Amino acid sequence: MGRTLQNTMINLGLQNACDEAVYQLGLDMEELEEIEEDAGLGNGGLGRLAACFLDSMATLGLAAYGYGIRYEYGIFNQKIRDGWQVEEADDWLRHGNPWEKARPEYMLPVHFYGRVEHSASGAKWIDTQVVLALPYDTPVPGYMNNTVNTMRLWSARAPNDFNLRDFNVGDYIQAVLDRNLAENISRVLYPNDNFFEGKELRLKQEYFVVAATLQDIIRRFKASKFGSTDSVRTVFDSFPDQVAIQLNDTHPAMAIPELMRIFVDIEKLPWDKAWDITKRTFAYTNHTVLPEALERWPVDLVEKLLPRHLQIIYEINQRHLDHIACLFPNDVERLRRMSLIEEGDTKRINMAHLCIVGSHAVNGVAKIHSEIVKTQVFEDFAALEPEKFQNKTNGITPRRWLLLCNPGLAELIAEKIGEDYVRDLSQLTKLHKFVDDDLFIREVAKVKQENKVKFALYLEKEYKVKINPSSMFDVHVKRIHEYKRQLMNCLHIITMYNRIRRDPAKLFVPRTVIIGGKAAPGYHMAKMIIKLINAVAQVVNNDPTVGSKLKVIFLENYRVSLAEKVIPATDLSEQISTAGTEASGTGNMKFMLNGALTIGTMDGANVEMAEEAGEENLFIFGMRVEDVTELDRKGYNAQLYYDRLPELKQAVDQIKSGFFSPKDPNLFNDVVNMLFHHDRFKVFADYEAYVKCQEKVSELYLNSKAWTKMVIRNIAAAGKFSSDRTIKEYARDIWHVEPSDLKIPPPNEPRDAGQDKTPNGTAA
């Protein structure tokens, strides 16, 4: 979520008033804003997407709730020591959190372990351990519409009789200390992005948020006028018409068997009716196609922790496979591929398969990703129910990612096209008519230059390096992962460095290359990549031949509040994942909206950005998905590229020989070995095209006016990438609710019954 203060002032239309009031008290608002801690309750794109969605849902007047876990420790703080990443605990609640309100009156029990007893009256889950879920509510204000939604985060609490109720005669002190065991559930965020780690505590977290949330939803449904008992219909017949639940990846997949357990075991609905209601309630968003990221929980772990849920999953699977066997008799191979249970040395539950079978809609997050989901990852399921699969291209909130972080640009745009674009970003197309307006071109360039100077001062303060603010700010910020290919950027830096040294007199377009992002603590290769970037920076930044032509900075502890500083100052946005690996990306959209040009592959939402702005207005290079597939078919041989490209050979040899690690020449052996022998993401295959494309970038940067015109064309084409547009599509195609742009009256005005904003149907 990042910080809340400035976002709240903007959405309430109070920013100028607050700035002025605080100034009159002799304080500086910006200084105050810097004191607030980021709420870092997610890992990367997926968590930030949810935050943007909450802002858009409130702005569109949807009756929507964001549910999650109130982690005591969020994503770790990253320190760089001697070029290595070191993790520190993110004690973000140390000074309290003024935005949250504990709601002990809505505390709910969550059960674990135990056993299942079957009787004539049905199944009973008994002898369980209970953990209490205490909700904390954070307000989510819409933009200037007097709507305030709720984000409800659950914290784990031990019941007061914990470890004391059972035959525990003696150790009272130990029993009280053991309360920590229950409360550890909400202690810390697992720091993996795009990687599955099958730990018991993680499964507990997933079920904890799901069980508490579903009880909360059902309590609210029963208390509403829709839930009131009707003599004709079952109480729950209208449930899917009043409730929509969107599963953000498979992490909350246990919600499907949990809702079935509530309907069948507790509410005593017949299975078929319960299953129909469940399917119509859930929809699933897939966020990655990387096999190592897909959740596959061991059956024995689920059996121990959630025995009744395992039985329900088996029943769902049995009925699912019976259905497929009817449609495709004797196709055992298909049954194996489509089963929710994977056989093998350890039986596992494929959570994505559970989500697809238990949902009425499945979507990817960019056109190309949704195609890959349909035709490759889940092709059998798409063949069965093609109408179930959709696309919903991701978006970003223009409130945080333009108004808040780039007020200079936001104001300049408002002067030209009015202020309405903030709620309807498609209006940015009106900027096309100013693409040849010399004054506007100069003003856009001036805003960018001011942002660069401000960020350069920040860098000089934090990193003690002299930055040339007229150099091209070339920025690559995102989680560190092999598929995102920070290594390819690194090879380009080394190539530029070698070119400067080879011919110091030759014209070189100066660059400040900024790379930032966190590596999962257990991801060895990602940590080596950080060390390599820092080692290269050490050499480049201290070579007098290079001077101010090339500077390399590794940005420490990349997070939302730092993104808000670096993105408005960026000239060149690096979006260089191997085609077919980045589901969408959202940083790409933030840079586009803030006047950076993109160098990127035809991957994720880059494809649609090129479609909107025209491919000639992005720097697109490298293999397309088809080329990657073809190369896989032929077999990727890294050595071929190394032998054919002298500059690549030189750069790799320098890494290999210890040129960047003279004290330990073998330091980067693992990296080099990976690049030659098991590089799934084919860095060498795109190196040549990347370097050539970077030359075109430098060439255009020399012509400031042509560069800025291309920037304006990009900003004018960024309207599609508002999360408001994304949420309208979810609302219409999946949740079946109508967004309302009605501004409800403020609380100090009487509410006219005629314009009372009652939620028109479903709550999402």
TrEMBL record:
<comment type="function">
    <text>Allosteric enzyme that catalyzes the rate-limiting step in glycogen catabolism, the phosphorolytic cleavage of glycogen to produce glucose-1-phosphate, and plays a central role in maintaining cellular and organismal glucose homeostasis.</text>
</comment>
<protein>
    <recommendedName>
        <fullName>Alpha-1,4 glucan phosphorylase</fullName>
        <ecNumber>2.4.1.1</ecNumber>
    </recommendedName>
</protein>
<feature type="modified residue" description="N6-(pyridoxal phosphate)lysine">
    <location>
        <position position="590"/>
    </location>
</feature>
<dbReference type="GO" id="GO:0005737">
    <property type="term" value="C:cytoplasm"/>
</dbReference>
<keyword id="KW-0663">Pyridoxal phosphate</keyword>
<feature type="region of interest" description="Disordered">
    <location>
        <begin position="738"/>
        <end position="764"/>
    </location>
</feature>
<keyword id="KW-0808">Transferase</keyword>
<dbReference type="InterPro" id="IPR035090">
    <property type="entry name" value="Pyridoxal_P_attach_site"/>
</dbReference>
<comment type="similarity">
    <text>Belongs to the glycogen phosphorylase family.</text>
</comment>
<dbReference type="Pfam" id="PF00343">
    <property type="entry name" value="Phosphorylase"/>
</dbReference>
<keyword id="KW-0328">Glycosyltransferase</keyword>
<dbReference type="GO" id="GO:0008184">
    <property type="term" value="F:glycogen phosphorylase activity"/>
</dbReference>
<dbReference type="InterPro" id="IPR011833">
    <property type="entry name" value="Glycg_phsphrylas"/>
</dbReference>
<dbReference type="GO" id="GO:0005980">
    <property type="term" value="P:glycogen catabolic process"/>
</dbReference>
<dbReference type="GO" id="GO:0030170">
    <property type="term" value="F:pyridoxal phosphate binding"/>
</dbReference>
<comment type="subunit">
    <text>Homodimer; enzymatically active. Interacts with PPP1R3B; recruits the phosphatase PP1 which dephosphorylates and inactivates PYGL/glycogen phosphorylase.</text>
</comment>
<keyword id="KW-0021">Allosteric enzyme</keyword>
<dbReference type="InterPro" id="IPR000811">
    <property type="entry name" value="Glyco_trans_35"/>
</dbReference>
<keyword id="KW-0321">Glycogen metabolism</keyword>
<keyword id="KW-0119">Carbohydrate metabolism</keyword>
<keyword id="KW-0597">Phosphoprotein</keyword>
